[in-house]
Amino acid sequence: MAPILKIAQMANSPVDLFLAVCLGFFFGLVLESGGLANCRKIAGVFYLYDVTVVKVMFSAILTAMLLLYATSALGILDISILYLPDTFIISYILAGTILGVGMVMGGY
Amino acid sequence: MNPYIAGIALGFVLFASFLLCGKGLGGSAAWARLSAYLMHLIAPAHIENSPYFGHYFAHGKNPLHFWLVFLGIGTFLGGLVSTFIHGRSKIEVNKGPGISVRGRLVYALAGGILVGFASRLGLGCTSGQGLAGAAMLSLGSWAFLFSVFFGGYATAYFVKDGWL
Fold it and tell me: Which terminus of chain B, N or C, has fewer Cβ atoms within 10 Å?
């Protein structure tokens, strides 16, 4: 059963933190390879001269979503104990809007 | 790299994070904790009594001893290796054609302050909310994600000299 380390009560153990570095490594590798470390590509989304970021982001969301729900349906993954921030709709709309303003100004 | 291939690979990394550790990938928490750590070096009492940052230090805890900080270290290394692989590792100020380096840095600082504040208000950035939360079909994360696009498109016209 997964999530493996959470069920094994090993959250924040050295193994968990080592995996964080490994996962982060691939996260950074894929982000940079996909062009998401380039501020001109980020800004490109808002002027529609380069929509790479949108292509990467939504294919990632779709892939992860399908894998999460497929493994959950097969009984491999207990989706209910995954970390999920509480839902504060108004705060999130406000936060997202401010973040979008900052993103088009700063490029990240 | 083809953006769809990169996206699918990113989706697998995100899924692996949930499958192994039960947590999604996040980018902003490491920065918040690093800032808190640095501020603590200068004004320890102020930060420890801060309603937001105080709990990072509760019971003598080190704010950097945190899963997302370790993830951030890995992200830095992975990004660095990728620039070597693609032969684009260099020190530069990446910017639009019509803006000075100084102007670009001013925009970057202003934008960074807004993104930093917003990522704490929203309990995450485009990684934690936008990718991880959205993949779990969280309503709040989708509201966040669409608001990012709204805020960006609403502002784009006014800062176009920075990029076009």
Answer: C
